[in-house]
Model the fold of this input.
Amino acid sequence: MSISLDAVATQRAGSDAGDRSVFARRIILVLAVTLLLTAVLSLASGATDTSAVSVVWALLTGQDDLVSAVERVVILDIRMPRTLLGMMIGASLAVSGATMQGLFRNPLADPGIVGVSAGAGLGAVTFIVLGGSVLAPVAALFGIYHVPFAAFLGGLAFTFALYRISTSNGRTSVATMLLAGIALGAMAGAFIGLLVFWADDEQLRDLTFWGLGSVAGATWPKVLAVAPIIVPILVFAPFMARGLNAMTLGEATAQHLGIHVQVFKRVAIVMVAAATGAAVAVSGGIGFVGIVVPHLLRLSIGPDHRYLLPACALLGAIMLLFADAVARQIVAPAELPIGIVTATVGAPFFLWILLRRRGLMDI
Amino acid sequence: MTQTMMKKPRGLKRRFLLQSALVALLSSPLATYLTHAEGTEAKRVLAIGGAVTEIVYALGEQDRLVGRDSTSSYPPEATALPDVGYIRALSPEGVLSVKPDLILARENNGPPEAVEVLRSTGVRWVDVADDFTLAGISENIAIIAAELGVPEKGEALKKKVAADIARARAKLASIERRHKVMFVLALTDDKVNAAGKNTAAGNIVELAGGDNVITEFSGYKQISNEAVIEAAPEVIVMMNGRGDSGDHQSPNALLEAHPALSMTPAVRNGRIIRMDGLLLLGFGPRTGEAISKLADAFYGHEH
Done:
């Protein structure tokens, strides 16, 4: 079985497939090293002149008294959770994007295609606007984290609804899911519009900022809440590679190649919904990573998901950490929403790659 | 030692002790601690909120300011201070980078996670109420003056502000009839966004002797063209730069061309008042000036 699937991948990747897999492995290695460096950069850079190295060294060697309370908070409670959260969010958005593009055989599919973004947006906006009044008792239950909780639950609820709508007789229709997703998105948009009408000035700014995304609010509770969701999914994702490779040939062919298509779809959708839901819940709307990262990598290492998925996780994490480092430095001591950076840096770069290699565009 | 010092959380003292340990080679830790204790008040103050910054300046304590937020644009020299961003989108590290030992923040600051992290550093954090009333101004001046360890200056400023407001309001005794006023917050895409009840804009209009024509809702909301005509304001108040045609000859061209606003007595009689937003809506130490200017614009010909 595995031989025939490998052959499929090889065939699709073209005659230089042998070279490509070697190349892909090298790229993954380079990305892994780059991610390490970026993570160090992320820990070391910030608006304060706190030195990450000296603080970590002092704490590790037990010289706690050399570290002030502020320095300790800056490194341990501000930068560390932020770096970890950025890595997890970037990786999960990119891997989710690649998975959805493969599953739906649609280059425009992003993680939001399973309804997560619309649902999460609705959940977040509902609590931003009503959390202080009508929904105050519910908000109090989750404390300062009521908006992330609402976003996560909203995302899952929408995915569940979308899946049920597009599944009949035990078969999920991709086309129905795309169209129903647009309808659900419009409904969410209408409700959000209504809430915007009720919102006061400050709430309006809150939801604008939420939509632009940020990891500035990273805290340990957030890291600990999303890690048990995102990390297992990232670890499991590469095992989906063969199935995704088969799906690119069409559902019928994949079925013939021994993939249980319906189960596979369900697993993929649940994984993407959970990973994206968790990411969006803690960071707001960070667009673009889920589309740009997978395509950039397809253009360089090819469409074989065995390499594509791990590479996406690495490059997604790098891109987000890098964007966040820019976001926190460029207008310091203030800070830009990260969504602005990912789009302004990512979009022109993506266009440039696209123009250079447009002949090779493939899914 | 004043009350301010006693109210400081233990974490802060602990930090001073830790810092003291650093300079142990140069001087004895106890001496350092005592030196600091003599000063009692914060030396590096971060002001978050336009009115908060104005109050610190009005108290004459601006030399202790090390930063401000993006809404603090008065007095003009305040803009030279490092800007830690928008009050609802504070970045914990950005705030700490100005090394504050006291943070005076207007209420409704955020995001809550960032504020919680900041509070955990032991840097003193004081919320200043977001109260658009005359009593609120006094209260806020008292809180800030106490935090800065200058309660006498606070009392003096409270008296001065109260006197300014009383003087401005005294002129209103002679008016015969309160004019109907609409505060237009924004005129985006020709849609009128007006101030309702319980807003800084609505309150300042009432204080200056105007009647806010919008009584149906609280906050700022977009209203329909028919509602604008129905409300028939005699005066329209806007912030500088809003709904301005950009043409010095006829800055109100946009309002005159607007299907609904052009029908109102205010536009037909050219009674459009534009004032600085922070002066008008800040509810800070300049509130007396704001009331006076607005009242003069409303009733200048009557008193």
